[in-house]
Amino acid sequence: MVFFWMKDPEDEKTIQDFMKGTEDFFKQVEEIKTYHIGTPAGTPREVVDSSYQVSLVVTFDSKEDQDVYQDHQAHLDYIEDYKHLWKRVQVYDSWS
Amino acid sequence: MVFFWMKDPEDEKTIQDFMKGTEDFFKQVEEIKTYHIGTPAGTPREVVDSSYQVSLVVTFDSKEDQDVYQDHQAHLDYIEDYKHLWKRVQVYDSWS
After folding, report:
1. Which of A2, A69, A92, A95 to mutate to test the interface with B (most CBs of B within 10 A)?
2. Which residues of chain B have pLDDT under 50?
3. Which end of chain B is more exposed for a tag (fewer CB within 10 A), N or C?
């Protein structure tokens, strides 16, 4: 799970381009099992953090597949292409 | 997506019981499409927050289904049964 806070949270065009670029990147990594690219659902409950602009949920069949994704050239290019847009990135890696 | 920080993060037995109780609760809510109950994957990268003890990813087909889940008696009972264990709960609701 990844959450992005953009430097310009009002720039909808750039956010849309970034989400499109995220999907293009995901499609290059065959080790990804499922992905979800989202935005805050606007649920105004006290425990809900809606301050981010873009969220990702990416799932893998194994830790090894996640390792491939992590070091994939498409991932490194993606970070290089878009990191200038991000004020803050928060990642939570979970397994079961 | 929900992240729990437990009052006693060292109490593995209680954490296991809580995760079991979470799954029992999920099985009572037919509006849930998929769920994942996880713990930190132990990936030591700078942007990764591994300080929580339990994570949930719960997906729904529609906002309406999520509303039913939110107000479901099994959800209310679950919160009442386990909230004394939680130091902090962080929720991110996303849609696409």
Report:
1. A92
2. none
3. C
